[in-house]
Amino acid sequence: MNTIQITVMTTTQVDRAGLQDAYSDVRDDKSECNWAVFKYDGCQVMVAAKGQTFDDFKAQFDEDERAFAYLRLQTGDEMSKRSKFLLVTWVGTGVSPIKKAKMSTDKALVKEILSNFAVELTLESATELDHEAFLQELRKAGGANYGTGIRD
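The structure corresponding to this sequence follows.
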C-alpha cells in the first residue's frame, strides 16, 4: 500500500506590535535607526534586527532566507534634503519554490503595517544590496531631480 505524505503550510503570523514599533522607529526623524529587518521565526514574521549603517543592513541577508526590510535613506541636493523610504522583499537563491511562492501573500500582511514607502524592491542576491542603486531608484520614483544645474 502506498502512503501519501501531505505537507501543510501553516498560515503566516505577523508580530504586528513589533513591526509597528520598528516601522515607527525608522520613520522617526529624531531616531538614529535607519533600517529594520523582519525575518521568519517558524511561521511568524518578527523583528530580526534594527540599525544605522548600510553595511550592517547588508549583513542581515543570507541566501537561504526570506525577509522583509524597511529602510530610510536621505535624498535631495545641496538645497533640500529629504528622507525617503524603501520596502525590500528578500528571497535568497537557496529558498525553496514553495516558500518563494508564499512570499506574495506574506508580503501583503507585512504591507498592512509597513505602508508608507516610495520604492518597493524584490531582491535575491547580495550584489543587489547596493546603496547607490537604492538611491537611484528613489530619485527615479521622486520625479524631479534638481541640483546644481550641471548636467552629466
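The CA atoms of residues 20 and 113 lie 6 Å apart.
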